[in-house]
Design a protein that fits this description.
Elements: E1 13-14, E2 20-27, H1 34-39, E3 43-48, H2 50-54, H3 62-75, E4 80-84, H4 112-117, H5 119-132, E5 137-142, H6 148-168, E6 175-182, H7 192-197, E7 200-203, H8 205-212, H9 231-247, E8 251-253, H10 261-269, E9 274-277, H11 279-290, H12 294-306, H13 313-323
Helix pairs in contact: 3-5, 5-6, 10-11, 10-12
Bound molecules: phosphoenolpyruvate (PEP) and magnesium ion.
Magnesium ion binds at residues 143, 183, 204, 206-207.
């Protein structure tokens, strides 16, 4: 399927109205990195770091992780990689961690919450990242931030680790960007100071949507019940875009929906300018974006919303069928 898109692989995702959308890829393994070249992605917008923890039967060592992260950065050949710190708990349980029975694991002790309560692992991972990226740029993002204080505390761990590297006389990254995943609705309402404090935000649509509709992303009975192109959800995303625009905070979208062409076109129409998706989706998404006039599509979305539709999908499909 990738071959169908080779002719546009090295072309930008430039829409008919001249807007360029940055398309990045999601990754989690060394083996994913060659796709950076094959897919034509601009960089890795989300490197999930869980796998290296999940495939072992004991906690990985700092040196091992640092070596792996350095190889990932090498294999990106100067393209940008955003490393997400460990996102465990809920559906991702480490075999060597005591299992804690929770009535609602998706709402429970997971991701940054574990990292704050047991900071040893985060510290180790942050050191590994700083060492891997010494002399090169580094982007780190924290998962599942629900309020500003969590971000401030997590960021402080990076500052402390940097300080330590300086004292030890180790080289450090030449540029460091620290961001957060926006995957709990509360962050959309965080104070302005949060938006000023983060270097970038990335919408984790999988989690954000599950919490927005209160519909478990793992539960077959409800996971497809609510359309991503539901007017309420798109309006919510539009508000997030507006806040980020107002504070000049770079924003991207890295949930699975970014890899679905119709959804991706609608996200671009409501103002998202960067998305990260599985490599095989880059071609199809770029292809639709290059044939779409975002201003027109935005009008279709807003009209559907003004007309009281629950989902904009039928109107968007009609419009795209006519145009493409
Ligand atoms: C998300 O929640 O959309 C996301 C990208 O993270 P994960 O799927 O790993 O939870
Ligand atoms: Mg998530």
């Amino acid at each position: 399927a990738q071959e169908r898109y080779t002719s546009i692989r090295n072309k930008p995702a430039e829409t008919l109205c001249g807007t360029i959308i940055d398309l990045h890829m999601n990754a989690g393994l060394m083996a994913d990195l060659p796709s950076l070249e094959n897919s034509g992605a601009e960089g890795v917008g989300l490197f999930r770091t869980e796998l290296q923890f999940l495939i072992r039967n004991k906690m990985p060592q700092r040196a091992e992780l640092s070596e792996l992260y350095a190889r990932v950065i090498d294999a990106a050949h100067g393209k940008h990689v955003v490393f997400r710190t460990l996102d465990i708990g809920s559906d991702k349980v480490l075999p060597y961690m005591k299992v804690i029975e929770e009535p609602n694991p998706a709402l429970g002790w997971r991701a940054i919450r574990i990292a704050m309560d047991r900071p040893g692992v985060l510290r180790m991972q942050v050191q590994a990242l700083l060492r891997a990226a010494a002399g090169r740029p580094l982007s780190v993002m924290f998962p599942f931030i629900a309020q500003r204080e969590e971000f401030t505390a997590a960021r402080a761990e990076i500052d402390k680790a940097l300080e330590r590297e300086h004292i030890l006389g180790h080289p450090v990254p030449i540029e460091l960007k620290i961001g957060a995943m926006l995957e709990t609705p509360s962050l959309a309402f965080a104070p302005d100071s949060f938006y000023d404090e983060v270097d970038f935000l990335s919408i984790g649509g999988n989690d954000l949507k599950q919490f927005f509709f209160a519909a478990d992303r793992e539960n077959e009975l409800v996971r497809r019940r609510y359309d991503t192109l539901n007017v309420s959800f798109l309006t919510f995303l539009e508000q997030i875009v507006a806040r980020c625009d107002a504070s000049n905070t770079p924003l991207s979208f890295c949930g699975e929906d970014a890899g679905r062409p119709i959804e991706a076109a609608c996200f671009a129409a409501i103002g998202l300018r960067a998305m990260s998706m599985r490599p095989a989706s880059i071609g199809p998404v770029k292809s639709i974006l290059r044939r779409t006039d975002l201003t027109e599509l935005r009008d279709v979305i807003h009209q559907a919303s003004a007309d009281g539709l629950q989902s904009v999908r039928p109107r968007v499909m009609d419009y795209l069928r006519e145009k493409l």
